[in-house]
């Protein structure tokens, strides 16, 4: 995921527990009132800040948490209902490019602790076959960059958890629409499956257009796609990603 998600604009990532989303556009520790980060050039060595019941950051920490992460932390602090999550600091992006595109050694364990905290607060479990936790991953930066930030929704869905979501919601179409959108967004943002210079349209949209005309003989609205149509789109999206990205 590094190539696309780690931005040279010293970006940060905010991950929060989310209800599955079918519309297209994947927290930290400090005492309140204390300096949010150390002086320039000295890393804090804390890369994941929580927000939710336990909120580590605040609105003054935009250089470290990015505008989105700092504002989410501040909303939690003033009592607004914000889904729990965590923010990966801008220092990770700086480290990534300063250390041959590698990550800090402690980042993985900090993120695993973040997921565990989300599971505890939401009552859901990442990868669970009965009540799966889904999260959104959203880009952010120290400075506002409208239209430049990437998003991945419904992270946590796979061939097994999509069935669990369908059963839990009683709405298979909703579950499979969430899943096909996840495959599309992950393929685009993370794996770089995007429109080539010699192509006129996004490759995923080309697949959708082809299926509509193959099965319905017209360019119908996405809302008219059936569960079987969406399942087939997942299969074709995966084949496209495999062809373009090799995985």
If you had to describe this structure to a student in words, what would you say it looks like?
By secondary structure, the protein is an alpha+beta fold. It folds into two domains: 1-156, Dna Ligase, domain 1 (2-Layer Sandwich), CATH 3.30.1490; 158-247, Acyl-CoA Binding Protein, CATH 1.20.80. The chain contains eight helices and five strands. Strands 2-3-1-4-5 form a five-stranded antiparallel sheet, with helices on both faces. Helix 6 (172-189) runs parallel beside helix 8. It starts with a helix and ends with a helix. Residues 1-10 and 22-43 have low confidence and may be disordered.
SSE blueprint and pairings:
Elements: H1 2-5, E1 11-17, E2 48-51, H2 62-77, E3 85-88, H3 90-98, H4 107-122, E4 135-141, E5 151-155, H5 161-169, H6 172-189, H7 203-216, H8 227-245
Antiparallel strand pairs: 1-3, 1-4, 2-3, 4-5
Helix pairs in contact: 5-6, 6-8, 7-8
